[in-house]
Amino acid sequence: MDMKKTAIAVVAGYVLQMGGSYLLHSVILMNSYMATAELWRSEDAMGHRMWVMLVAQFIFVLGAVLVYQRGVERKSPVGQGIRFGILLAMVSVVPGSLINYVTIPVPHRLAIHWIVGEGVQCVLLGLLTALICQPKNSAS
After folding, report:
1. Burial of 47 per CB tally in 10 Å (0-12, 13-18, 19+)
2. Does the structure show a pLDDT above 60 at 16?
3. DSSP codes of every residue in 20-80
4. What is the pTM of this model?
5. Which of 1, 7, 5 has its CA nearest to residue 133?
6. What is d(CA 78, CA 42) in angstroms, rounded to the nearest whole number?
């Protein structure tokens, strides 16, 4: 395992995840969250716990990069990255969003937006990781 590529992939992936999460949750879905404000903590209460979100995103990206590196093949990184991102969404975003839909009284459209938006983030993370962690002598 190339530690330099691992570190670069983790840092780049973390930036991608944080930027994508901000765009999705603080911009695109903000009206949906405001319409269901009674379900969520106040902004102040969330702000005090933001460090937990930062750590959680880091753990997710680190785990994703390490899992990818264990299973990477000497094939095109684009195909591998898309496939990995879809699988990543299937084991994280989809079940998490569906569980939240069952346990929190959110509209079904919000759960669908979580699945689609965060699913796209997973595919982008998979692609980014694959492109950075591509083994030498891989098919292009």
Report:
1. exposed
2. yes
3. HHIIIIIIITHHHHHHTGGGS--HHHHHHTHHHHHHHHHHHHHHHHHHHHHH--SS-HHHH
4. 0.92
5. 5
6. 40
Q: Is the dihedral of CA 29, 52, 18, 79 positive or negative?
A: negative
Which of 58, 71, 57 shows the shortest CA–CA distance to 1? Answer: 71
Residue with the two structure tokens 């969404």: 89
Domain limits of the chain? 3-132
pLDDT at 1: 75
Instruction: Return all residues near 9 (Cβ < 8 A) that are at least 6 apart.
Output: 65, 68, 128, 129, 132, 133
Q: How far apart are CA 117 and CA 65, in angstroms?
A: 20
Roughly what angle, to the nearest 10 degrees, separates helices 50-71 and 108-132? 50
pLDDT of residue 107: 96
